[in-house]
Amino acid sequence: MSHLLHLDASARPASISRSLGARFADRWRLHNPAGDYRYRDLAADPVPLISPGWTAICDELLRRGITEPARYAEVVDTEARRAAWAVCAPLLAELLAADLVLIATPMYNFGVPAALKAWIDQVTFPRMTLPGTRFVVLSARGGSYRPGTPRAEVDHQERYLRDFFAGHFGVTDATFVAAELTNSLVDPRLAEQSEAHRRSHAAALAEIDRLTAPDSLVELAKTAAS
Ligand SMILES: Cc1cc2nc3c(=O)[nH]c(=O)nc-3n(C[C@H](O)[C@H](O)[C@H](O)COP(=O)(O)O)c2cc1C
User: Region 176-198: what's the mean pLDDT?
Assistant: First the structure.
């Protein structure tokens, strides 16, 4: 059975990344009626920042050379660690159960929102790997960061997430889809970019439809199983 973990991270209710994520998830659920679907709104229901108890767990795992998530609970033996573990264990269990993680996120300040970063900090432990887990990132950004554009070099969002998935989870095949130039919808001075935004948004929707077509989902599942 397939497990989809769907994360939203935009502070804006009428958000473009939310709508991209909803489209992906709706289509995935249509084609996986028996699949397990978990949803978290990291903006509306933020996970806490990691605490001293969390860092104590992390340090103790390193000290004892424990790398299997199933053994993490062995080092949860103080009040502070128990409190930290009560927050992070359900988040970690959701991530470990997922074979597809869908992250719908805005670009904030060239990177990821603090709400998403807080989740990443909670669920990431030393020498963890997630073999076969697929990550799909659907992003909305006010400007354009496509290769060849002046701001391409400062897309620290995709760059960061690619490096993070590879360096901490051993996942090198994450999929990224972006709807760009969304600021043209709200800033009258950027009105001349609205046609380029419309094209970018339409291309993102088409890519989501391609990724969630039954054949592509079979491919995603095969990759996850391999
Ligand atoms: C706090 C904040 C920081 C932002 N920083 C950037 C940025 O660095 N680059 C950019 O292109 N857009 C930036 N934007 C614009 C958002 O990326 C844009 O509004 C996007 O559509 C937000 O996603 P959403 O529609 O899913 O909320 C920022 C918006 C906010 C609220």
Answer: 97
Q: Which residue has the tokens 């903006």?
A: 43
The domain containing residue 120 runs over which residues?
3-43+96-225
Ligand 1 centroid from CA 149, angstroms = 17
pTM strictly above 0.90: yes
Name the closest-CA residue to atom 8, ligand 1.
109
- Ligand 1 touching residue 182 (CB < 6 A): yes
Residue 10, classified by CB atoms within 10 Å of its CB into exposed (0-12), middle (13-18) or buried (19+), is buried
Has residue 135 been placed in a domain?
Answer: yes
Any ligand 1 atom below 6 A from CB of 25: no
The structural domain count of the chain equals 1
Is the CB–ligand 1 distance for residue 111 below 6 Å? no
Which residue in 183, 208, 186, 181 sits closest to 197, CA to CA?
Answer: 181
